[in-house]
Each structure stands twice: as C-alpha cells, then as structure tokens.
Design a protein that fits this description.
Helix 2 (113-123) runs antiparallel to helix 3 (132-141). The radius of gyration is 20 Å and the shape is globular. 34% of the residues lie in helices and 26% in strands. The chain has helices spanning 88-103, 113-123, 132-141, 150-160, 170-184; strands at 3-8, 16-21, 26-30, 33-38, 43-50, 53-60, 75-76, 80-86. The longest helix has 16 residues, at 88-103. The chain is α+β, with helices and mostly antiparallel strands. The strands form two sheets. Strands 3-4-1-7 form a four-stranded antiparallel beta sheet, with no helix packed on it. It is built from five helices and eight strands; from the N terminus they run ββββββββααααα.
Length: 185
Amino acid sequence: MNTVLYIRKHHGDAARCELLWGEPLEVLAAPGGTVLVFGPGAIVAYVLHARRRRHVYVFRTLEVSDPLAASVPGVRPRVQLLVDLVSAGRMRLVRGLFAYLARTGRAPSDLPDSFFVRVSAALSGRLPQHKVLVALLHASLEPPRTCANGREARMDRERAAGRSWASMSATEAWLAASAADQGRR
C-alpha cells in the first residue's frame, strides 16, 4: 500500500512542510504544494513548520493499513512513527544524521526501527550525545549473538566492556552509568 505525503508551501499563517529524506515513487502537483507517493517500508523524514514550532517526523510507511498506527499531519494513511522531535537544533541533528547515512552509503530503509527509536531517545536528551551516532549504527549493524540464553549474552557484553553489573540493582546500575558518563565529559 502506498503512503501519500502532502508538502505544503508557505501561505500566510498556514503550516509549511519540508522533506528531509525520502525516495518517492511519484511526485504529483497539487493546489498549494506537492504530493509525494512512497512505497511500503520506506523511511521518510520531514519537518512541519507551524507557528514558530518545528516538528521533525521520521516514520516508516506500512505495507497494510493499521488503525493502531500513528497519525502524522499531512500523511495518509497512518504510519509507524519512529522519531518525533520539536526544535530547530534537533532538526539540524536529524538532517546531519541523514547526510551522514548518505555519505557512508547506508540506506535508511535498511536500518531497523530500533535504530531510529534509539536515535530519538538520544536526540531527546535522554542519552549522552558524545559518539552516539557511531555507537548506534554499530549496534544496529552487528549480527545478533547466539547464546544459550539472553542473560549469558548480556554478561558477555558487560565483561567485554570491562564492567560487572550482575550484582547491581537497576537503580545502582543506572547511577553507576550516570557517574561514568559524567566522568567522560
């Protein structure tokens, strides 16, 4: 199923849209703007400028209509929303992310949804931002490990990173990670 994105041009106080990333199948002229048609599974990033606020939306188009999927302004039908940020600074970071992916030859549509969810968390200020992009890409592209159980794989990763958190509670682990991040800054 195809997804349609209506890119409006600026008309007075009306909202204006700008495509940051996306490879449309078709580009159609419409009154007051352009209609872009995307195929299923495509990653699309666009900015909605409205009343001094900027929303950055990154979403994946769906193969079938899902009434529980996210409704994004200017997009029909509903999509799987991966990133929703509000600020000019974060818009620049998302623009830089897609420029980096293009420079390194990585197709955003080939990256898993979990990559974009982690990017959203990092850009929302919930994770430290030093070397985040490379770490996120590395985590998304490394093959999954096969172990007897998930705990064994987690412990192997912790040992490789030089830390042993097995005896810590979740709160203690979070405090230790926060202290380590403060020490790196």
